[in-house]
# Entry
Amino acid sequence: MQKIYVHPLPVRIWHWTNAFGFVALIVTGLQIRYVDLISLMSFKAAVNLHNWVGFVLIGNFFVWLLFYLFSDKIKVYHPELSPMKHFRGSLRQLQYYGYGIFKGDPNPHHVSAYHKFNPLQSVTYQIVMLLLVPLQFFTGILLWDLKHFSGAVEFFGGVRVVDTVHVLLFIFFVAYIFGHAYLGSLGHTPTAHFKAMFTGYEEVETEVERGEPAQTLT
Amino acid sequence: MADDRLIQINPFRAGWHTISMRARNGLKRENKGTYMANGRRDRAWTRAKFHMGLIIAALASVLLFPALFVTAYAAENALSEADKQCLACHSTEGLEKKLANGDTLSLHVRGEVFANSVHKAIGCAGCHADVDLKTHPGSVKNTAKNAREHSIARVAICRQCHEDAFKQHEQSVHAARVKEGNLIAPVCTGCHGSHSVTPKTAYETCVGCHAAALAAHQKWLPNASVHHEVVSCAACHAPAALRMVDLRLYDRVAKVWLSEKEGQPEFEKLARSADADGKGLDPMELRNLVRQINRNGNGNGAPPWKTLRGRIELRTNVEAHRLSGKDAAIRGCDNCHRSGAEPFQNVTVSITGSDGRPIRYDAQKEVLTSALSIESLPEFYAIGGTRSKLLDVLLLLAVLGGAGGTIGHWTLRKLSGRYLKKSESAHAKPGDQGRPSPGNHPDNGAR
# Structure
């Protein structure tokens, strides 16, 4: 096994702040929306906590964004420009999760410092980080001060429209957290990827250990 | 109504300013051009334009200014002959009398204001039955020592017709302050005016005295400004009263409440035809009504600019008189922000009538929570309280799908792992390395 450094410190700080922040936002969001069903804290406390955590995560988003903008590690997010290549890679990855993994097949994706995401991850993370997360922050800010942003709220169709977008994204993130945490447990040991997100080092098999020429997706 | 009339004057003034400013700006621009071109014709043209501007402005002022008096006269003209007889003297500005302590009691009544009040129907004699025209003036014995005592004494007249509101008011913080001798606590006329009596639920009535209310609420209430817009003061400050949601038609473009044209009421007819079963507008019927209202005079295909804006009010305004201080007022967010909250059990759709009073039509409470409301009620939403059932179902599916999917996948991995191990041990040969178990392949380097 070989250790390779794939998660730089700013990414790890961003990731865990984001992870705990998202859980906090989901819990307080549930409390705000379902005050008749959940009694973890008062509605007002939930709103205040939700607002504070939201702003921390908006700041945290810029940690992620600025790190990647000013680092060569941004290559990990470079999209695969050949649609066919991307489609084949995604299909291979889906085939692995849906079938190969049950037969004990190896993961078709091999991690390296500048190529840490499989094709499914790269497309998912780009949509999540560049579209859905900013949209969630944006709608959250509008809802935080409806009077101040009344022009924008009206432009987007009204408070119910803005809130519906916010809640739809919230529903997506609830499902996403389940999937993300579970897929994170599919390393060579159930905790391998979690450890890597703390230490920064992923343990990967060398080509010799695999006994086969390295598979590349690019 | 007097204030409304004043506001009507302002656009005229703005128009005058606009005209004169344009004339001046035109002069300035043209002067510059003249000096640059150094031509007499240009200067002559500039002067002509300036003079034309002045003439237009003068004509506008001559034609429009009397229009205001015509409007006021028309309103006054709608009064009965008896009332006009009273106003013959009482419309005189500065008419007043001195009370025992030297306080001045104004006897001046603006006829057009009274003509627009709800008391126009009962006329002057409705409240001033003690006045005998044969001996008036001089017969009225006002024994009040001061203006305050006079206002408090006149409450008895309001009570003759508004006993129910009076009883509610008696239990209010306002009545308590009056009894304590507070000199600024309002009696009936404090909020409703004396001759301009109109129903008062407007925010402006309360902040007329409680000017610091918004700042005080901002200290503890998130989105306090929005709460002040969509929740009437009485909804929280009359805690014993029952609440409802009124959805009022609003013009998004002109930024004014829609109102019925005098003599051509349409809203109720449209609502009645939309409400097929007569049980109140359901979500689909409300959506159709909003579409219909937007089609009437908006042109097909244009974006809907007539919308409904919601406001939490009291079911009966009588109860709005039992106002409490901040200690007894509702502060708990979950009074509204919970599913099935009391204010959302009764819903009306309304338009401002030609007399300024709302014309209401019942709607079913489901209009607040239906998925269709995103079209018909995009501008009214109380987090938690009017949440969409469809989104609740989607969230449940997301949780079940997320948890079920991961548990299902994990179970399949474990089962297939056991099966693989069994089949491998059954077919094991000496020196066979075996296959790794599912999901734990050493090279599963990515999620």
